[in-house]
Design goal:
Layout lengths: L1 H32 L5 H16 L4 H9 L8 H20 L6 H17 L6 H32 L5 H41 L10 H16 L3 H10 L5 H21 L5 H14 L8 H32 L1
Helix pairs in contact: 1-2, 1-4, 1-7, 1-8, 1-9, 1-10, 1-11, 2-7, 2-8, 3-6, 3-7, 4-5, 4-12, 5-12, 6-10, 6-11, 7-8, 7-10, 10-11
Protein backbone atom coordinates (compact mmCIF):
# COMPACT_ATOMS: atom_id res chain seq x y z
CA UNK A 1 0.00 0.00 0.00
CA UNK A 2 2.82 2.41 0.87
CA UNK A 3 4.52 1.83 -2.49
CA UNK A 4 1.27 2.63 -4.32
CA UNK A 5 0.81 5.85 -2.34
CA UNK A 6 4.37 6.88 -3.23
CA UNK A 7 3.59 6.27 -6.91
CA UNK A 8 0.43 8.40 -6.57
CA UNK A 9 2.41 11.24 -4.98
CA UNK A 10 5.04 11.11 -7.75
CA UNK A 11 2.32 11.17 -10.43
CA UNK A 12 0.63 14.06 -8.62
CA UNK A 13 3.85 16.07 -8.61
CA UNK A 14 4.38 15.34 -12.32
CA UNK A 15 0.81 16.45 -13.01
CA UNK A 16 1.40 19.69 -11.09
CA UNK A 17 4.58 20.35 -13.09
CA UNK A 18 2.70 19.77 -16.36
CA UNK A 19 -0.07 22.03 -15.07
CA UNK A 20 2.38 24.84 -14.34
CA UNK A 21 4.10 24.19 -17.68
CA UNK A 22 0.86 24.66 -19.63
CA UNK A 23 -0.61 27.33 -17.38
CA UNK A 24 2.52 29.50 -17.33
CA UNK A 25 0.81 31.33 -20.17
CA UNK A 26 -1.99 32.34 -17.80
CA UNK A 27 0.34 34.41 -15.67
CA UNK A 28 2.95 35.73 -18.09
CA UNK A 29 1.58 35.64 -21.64
CA UNK A 30 0.37 39.23 -21.61
CA UNK A 31 3.33 40.72 -19.73
CA UNK A 32 5.73 39.03 -22.18
CA UNK A 33 3.77 39.92 -25.33
CA UNK A 34 3.58 43.59 -24.30
CA UNK A 35 7.35 43.53 -23.65
CA UNK A 36 6.93 44.90 -20.14
CA UNK A 37 9.15 42.10 -18.86
CA UNK A 38 11.69 39.87 -20.54
CA UNK A 39 10.67 36.19 -20.70
CA UNK A 40 13.31 35.20 -18.14
CA UNK A 41 12.12 37.88 -15.70
CA UNK A 42 8.48 36.95 -16.23
CA UNK A 43 8.93 33.22 -15.54
CA UNK A 44 10.92 33.86 -12.38
CA UNK A 45 8.28 36.28 -11.11
CA UNK A 46 5.44 33.92 -12.01
CA UNK A 47 7.17 30.89 -10.47
CA UNK A 48 7.79 32.73 -7.18
CA UNK A 49 4.23 34.13 -6.96
CA UNK A 50 2.76 30.71 -7.81
CA UNK A 51 4.54 29.21 -4.83
CA UNK A 52 3.27 31.97 -2.53
CA UNK A 53 -0.28 31.62 -3.84
CA UNK A 54 -0.34 27.91 -3.08
CA UNK A 55 -0.12 28.70 0.65
CA UNK A 56 -3.13 31.06 0.57
CA UNK A 57 -5.81 28.53 1.56
CA UNK A 58 -6.70 24.85 1.29
CA UNK A 59 -10.43 25.34 0.62
CA UNK A 60 -10.17 24.24 -3.02
CA UNK A 61 -8.13 21.18 -2.03
CA UNK A 62 -10.89 20.06 0.34
CA UNK A 63 -13.52 20.56 -2.37
CA UNK A 64 -11.58 18.35 -4.77
CA UNK A 65 -10.87 15.81 -2.04
CA UNK A 66 -14.52 15.16 -1.17
CA UNK A 67 -16.54 16.85 -3.94
CA UNK A 68 -16.03 14.30 -6.71
CA UNK A 69 -16.17 10.98 -4.88
CA UNK A 70 -16.19 9.62 -1.32
CA UNK A 71 -12.55 8.99 -0.30
CA UNK A 72 -13.58 5.74 1.40
CA UNK A 73 -15.10 4.40 -1.82
CA UNK A 74 -11.99 4.47 -4.03
CA UNK A 75 -8.48 3.07 -4.17
CA UNK A 76 -5.03 4.47 -4.92
CA UNK A 77 -5.34 2.87 -8.35
CA UNK A 78 -8.26 5.22 -9.11
CA UNK A 79 -6.24 8.27 -8.14
CA UNK A 80 -3.16 7.09 -10.05
CA UNK A 81 -5.21 6.49 -13.20
CA UNK A 82 -6.76 9.96 -13.00
CA UNK A 83 -3.39 11.64 -12.56
CA UNK A 84 -1.76 9.68 -15.38
CA UNK A 85 -4.55 10.60 -17.80
CA UNK A 86 -4.34 14.28 -16.85
CA UNK A 87 -0.56 14.39 -17.04
CA UNK A 88 -0.42 12.89 -20.53
CA UNK A 89 -3.20 15.19 -21.80
CA UNK A 90 -1.59 18.35 -20.35
CA UNK A 91 1.80 17.46 -21.81
CA UNK A 92 0.40 16.64 -25.26
CA UNK A 93 -1.68 19.83 -25.47
CA UNK A 94 1.26 21.97 -24.34
CA UNK A 95 3.41 20.51 -27.11
CA UNK A 96 0.66 21.45 -29.57
CA UNK A 97 0.58 25.00 -28.19
CA UNK A 98 -3.01 24.73 -26.91
CA UNK A 99 -3.96 26.07 -23.48
CA UNK A 100 -6.18 23.52 -21.74
CA UNK A 101 -7.89 23.30 -18.41
CA UNK A 102 -5.93 21.25 -15.90
CA UNK A 103 -9.08 21.35 -13.77
CA UNK A 104 -11.08 19.65 -16.52
CA UNK A 105 -8.27 17.14 -17.05
CA UNK A 106 -7.99 16.26 -13.37
CA UNK A 107 -11.72 16.12 -12.61
CA UNK A 108 -12.49 14.28 -15.85
CA UNK A 109 -9.77 11.75 -15.06
CA UNK A 110 -11.03 11.25 -11.52
CA UNK A 111 -14.62 10.78 -12.71
CA UNK A 112 -13.59 8.26 -15.39
CA UNK A 113 -11.36 6.23 -13.06
CA UNK A 114 -13.96 6.29 -10.26
CA UNK A 115 -16.72 5.07 -12.59
CA UNK A 116 -14.40 2.33 -13.83
CA UNK A 117 -13.88 1.26 -10.21
CA UNK A 118 -17.39 1.46 -8.78
CA UNK A 119 -19.89 2.68 -11.36
CA UNK A 120 -21.75 5.99 -11.55
CA UNK A 121 -23.32 5.61 -8.10
CA UNK A 122 -19.88 6.14 -6.56
CA UNK A 123 -19.85 9.79 -7.69
CA UNK A 124 -20.79 12.71 -5.46
CA UNK A 125 -23.51 14.29 -7.61
CA UNK A 126 -24.00 17.33 -5.36
CA UNK A 127 -20.29 18.08 -5.19
CA UNK A 128 -19.81 17.58 -8.92
CA UNK A 129 -22.73 19.91 -9.68
CA UNK A 130 -21.05 22.64 -7.62
CA UNK A 131 -17.70 22.04 -9.35
CA UNK A 132 -19.17 21.96 -12.87
CA UNK A 133 -21.14 25.17 -12.26
CA UNK A 134 -17.95 26.92 -11.17
CA UNK A 135 -16.10 25.63 -14.24
CA UNK A 136 -18.91 26.66 -16.61
CA UNK A 137 -19.64 30.10 -15.16
CA UNK A 138 -16.05 31.29 -14.61
CA UNK A 139 -15.35 31.88 -18.35
CA UNK A 140 -18.54 33.95 -18.57
CA UNK A 141 -17.34 36.06 -15.66
CA UNK A 142 -13.96 36.34 -17.41
CA UNK A 143 -15.30 37.84 -20.62
CA UNK A 144 -17.81 40.11 -18.84
CA UNK A 145 -15.34 41.38 -16.23
CA UNK A 146 -12.61 41.83 -18.85
CA UNK A 147 -14.91 43.90 -21.09
CA UNK A 148 -16.35 45.99 -18.23
CA UNK A 149 -13.01 46.71 -16.56
CA UNK A 150 -11.35 47.64 -19.84
CA UNK A 151 -14.27 49.91 -20.73
CA UNK A 152 -13.94 51.62 -17.34
CA UNK A 153 -10.17 52.11 -17.75
CA UNK A 154 -10.62 53.59 -21.23
CA UNK A 155 -13.03 56.14 -19.76
CA UNK A 156 -10.45 57.27 -17.20
CA UNK A 157 -7.63 57.41 -19.76
CA UNK A 158 -9.43 59.11 -22.65
CA UNK A 159 -7.49 62.37 -22.17
CA UNK A 160 -4.05 60.75 -21.88
CA UNK A 161 -1.62 60.25 -24.75
CA UNK A 162 -0.76 56.75 -25.96
CA UNK A 163 2.81 57.16 -24.69
CA UNK A 164 1.62 58.12 -21.21
CA UNK A 165 -0.84 55.22 -21.08
CA UNK A 166 1.84 52.71 -22.07
CA UNK A 167 4.25 54.17 -19.52
CA UNK A 168 1.84 54.01 -16.57
CA UNK A 169 0.26 50.68 -17.39
CA UNK A 170 3.62 49.12 -18.20
CA UNK A 171 4.49 49.57 -14.52
CA UNK A 172 1.05 48.55 -13.31
CA UNK A 173 1.18 45.41 -15.41
CA UNK A 174 4.03 44.04 -13.31
CA UNK A 175 1.66 44.21 -10.32
CA UNK A 176 -1.24 42.67 -12.24
CA UNK A 177 0.95 39.83 -13.58
CA UNK A 178 2.13 39.12 -10.03
CA UNK A 179 -1.48 39.01 -8.81
CA UNK A 180 -2.42 36.71 -11.68
CA UNK A 181 0.43 34.30 -10.85
CA UNK A 182 -0.49 34.41 -7.15
CA UNK A 183 -4.15 33.64 -7.92
CA UNK A 184 -3.08 30.80 -10.21
CA UNK A 185 -1.12 29.17 -7.39
CA UNK A 186 -4.01 29.73 -4.98
CA UNK A 187 -6.40 27.69 -7.12
CA UNK A 188 -4.54 25.31 -9.43
CA UNK A 189 -1.89 24.03 -7.01
CA UNK A 190 -4.63 23.14 -4.53
CA UNK A 191 -6.32 20.72 -6.92
CA UNK A 192 -3.40 18.33 -6.71
CA UNK A 193 -3.14 18.91 -2.95
CA UNK A 194 -6.71 17.64 -2.77
CA UNK A 195 -5.90 14.60 -4.90
CA UNK A 196 -2.87 13.63 -2.78
CA UNK A 197 -4.86 14.11 0.43
CA UNK A 198 -7.70 12.05 -1.06
CA UNK A 199 -5.23 9.24 -1.74
CA UNK A 200 -3.80 9.41 1.79
CA UNK A 201 -7.30 9.22 3.30
CA UNK A 202 -8.41 6.34 1.07
CA UNK A 203 -5.19 4.48 1.96
CA UNK A 204 -5.74 4.96 5.70
CA UNK A 205 -2.72 7.25 6.20
CA UNK A 206 -4.96 10.20 7.15
CA UNK A 207 -8.31 10.29 8.92
CA UNK A 208 -9.54 13.64 7.59
CA UNK A 209 -9.11 15.86 4.53
CA UNK A 210 -6.85 18.32 6.35
CA UNK A 211 -3.97 18.92 3.94
CA UNK A 212 -0.53 18.16 5.47
CA UNK A 213 2.14 20.86 5.24
CA UNK A 214 4.49 18.66 3.19
CA UNK A 215 1.73 18.22 0.59
CA UNK A 216 1.21 21.99 0.36
CA UNK A 217 4.96 22.60 0.03
CA UNK A 218 5.48 19.86 -2.58
CA UNK A 219 2.60 21.03 -4.77
CA UNK A 220 3.62 24.67 -4.46
CA UNK A 221 7.19 23.95 -5.55
CA UNK A 222 6.06 21.65 -8.37
CA UNK A 223 3.69 24.31 -9.71
CA UNK A 224 6.42 26.95 -9.49
CA UNK A 225 8.92 24.66 -11.21
CA UNK A 226 6.53 23.91 -14.08
CA UNK A 227 5.76 27.60 -14.50
CA UNK A 228 9.45 28.50 -14.60
CA UNK A 229 9.86 26.23 -17.63
CA UNK A 230 6.56 27.34 -19.16
CA UNK A 231 5.31 26.20 -22.54
CA UNK A 232 6.25 28.98 -24.96
CA UNK A 233 3.90 27.75 -27.69
CA UNK A 234 0.97 28.24 -25.30
CA UNK A 235 2.26 31.66 -24.27
CA UNK A 236 2.39 32.68 -27.93
CA UNK A 237 -1.15 31.40 -28.53
CA UNK A 238 -2.66 33.41 -25.67
CA UNK A 239 -0.44 36.50 -25.63
CA UNK A 240 0.25 37.04 -29.33
CA UNK A 241 -1.95 35.04 -31.68
CA UNK A 242 -5.33 35.76 -30.07
CA UNK A 243 -5.06 39.55 -29.76
CA UNK A 244 -2.50 42.32 -30.31
CA UNK A 245 -1.92 43.49 -26.74
CA UNK A 246 -0.67 46.76 -25.26
CA UNK A 247 0.20 47.17 -21.56
CA UNK A 248 -3.25 48.63 -20.80
CA UNK A 249 -4.94 45.53 -22.24
CA UNK A 250 -2.61 43.19 -20.37
CA UNK A 251 -3.30 45.00 -17.10
CA UNK A 252 -7.07 44.86 -17.59
CA UNK A 253 -7.09 41.17 -18.52
CA UNK A 254 -4.73 40.06 -15.74
CA UNK A 255 -6.48 42.09 -13.05
CA UNK A 256 -9.95 40.89 -14.07
CA UNK A 257 -8.83 37.27 -14.14
CA UNK A 258 -6.94 37.51 -10.84
CA UNK A 259 -9.97 38.96 -9.02
CA UNK A 260 -12.23 36.15 -10.29
CA UNK A 261 -9.75 33.38 -9.48
CA UNK A 262 -8.89 34.63 -5.99
CA UNK A 263 -12.60 35.02 -5.24
CA UNK A 264 -13.16 31.42 -6.34
CA UNK A 265 -10.22 30.20 -4.23
CA UNK A 266 -11.64 31.97 -1.17
CA UNK A 267 -14.99 30.21 -1.72
CA UNK A 268 -13.29 26.85 -2.27
CA UNK A 269 -14.39 26.65 -5.91
CA UNK A 270 -12.03 25.05 -8.43
CA UNK A 271 -12.03 27.04 -11.66
CA UNK A 272 -10.00 26.87 -14.83
CA UNK A 273 -7.46 29.66 -14.71
CA UNK A 274 -6.87 29.05 -18.42
CA UNK A 275 -10.54 29.64 -19.19
CA UNK A 276 -10.71 32.76 -17.05
CA UNK A 277 -7.63 34.55 -18.39
CA UNK A 278 -8.34 33.59 -22.01
CA UNK A 279 -11.93 34.86 -21.87
CA UNK A 280 -10.78 37.98 -20.00
CA UNK A 281 -8.43 38.70 -22.93
CA UNK A 282 -11.34 38.18 -25.33
CA UNK A 283 -13.47 40.60 -23.32
CA UNK A 284 -10.71 43.19 -23.28
CA UNK A 285 -10.17 42.82 -27.02
CA UNK A 286 -13.87 43.22 -27.72
CA UNK A 287 -13.74 46.80 -26.39
CA UNK A 288 -11.63 47.70 -29.44
CA UNK A 289 -13.94 46.01 -31.89
CA UNK A 290 -15.16 42.45 -32.24
CA UNK A 291 -12.81 41.80 -35.16
CA UNK A 292 -9.80 42.74 -33.01
CA UNK A 293 -9.99 39.28 -31.42
CA UNK A 294 -8.83 36.44 -33.64
CA UNK A 295 -11.88 34.29 -33.01
CA UNK A 296 -10.45 31.44 -35.10
CA UNK A 297 -7.71 30.98 -32.47
CA UNK A 298 -10.36 31.25 -29.78
CA UNK A 299 -12.38 28.51 -31.49
CA UNK A 300 -9.38 26.13 -31.42
CA UNK A 301 -8.90 26.87 -27.71
CA UNK A 302 -12.58 26.26 -26.98
CA UNK A 303 -12.49 22.96 -28.88
CA UNK A 304 -9.53 21.83 -26.76
CA UNK A 305 -11.46 22.82 -23.62
CA UNK A 306 -14.56 20.87 -24.68
CA UNK A 307 -12.51 17.77 -25.45
CA UNK A 308 -10.45 17.80 -22.26
CA UNK A 309 -12.96 16.50 -19.73
CA UNK A 310 -14.47 13.62 -21.77
CA UNK A 311 -11.09 12.66 -23.27
CA UNK A 312 -9.43 12.43 -19.85
CA UNK A 313 -12.45 10.60 -18.40
CA UNK A 314 -12.30 7.95 -21.13
CA UNK A 315 -8.52 7.63 -20.94
CA UNK A 316 -8.62 7.32 -17.13
CA UNK A 317 -11.39 4.70 -17.39
CA UNK A 318 -9.26 2.58 -19.71
CA UNK A 319 -6.11 3.19 -17.66
CA UNK A 320 -7.85 2.06 -14.46
CA UNK A 321 -9.00 -1.17 -16.10
CA UNK A 322 -5.35 -1.91 -16.90
CA UNK A 323 -4.10 -0.80 -13.46
CA UNK A 324 -6.73 -2.95 -11.72
CA UNK A 325 -5.29 -6.04 -13.45
CA UNK A 326 -1.78 -5.19 -12.20
CA UNK A 327 -2.49 -4.14 -8.62
Amino acid sequence: MLEIVIIVVVLAILFDISNGYNDAANAIATVVSTRVLKPSQAVLLAGFMNVLGAFMTTAVAKTIGKGVVDPAAITEGVVASALLAGFIWNTAMTRLGLPVSASHALIGGLVGAAVSHGGFLILNVQGLTKIFLALLLSPVFGIVFGYAFMYLILGFCRNLSTAAVNKYFGKLQIISASCMAFSHGSNDAQKVMGIITLSLVSGGFLHSLEVPFWVILSCALAMGFGTAFGGWKVIKTIGVNMLKLEPIHGFAAETSAAVIIMGASHLGLPVSTTHVVSTAIMGVGATKRLTAVRWGIGKKIVNAWLLTLPACAIFAWITHKVVALII
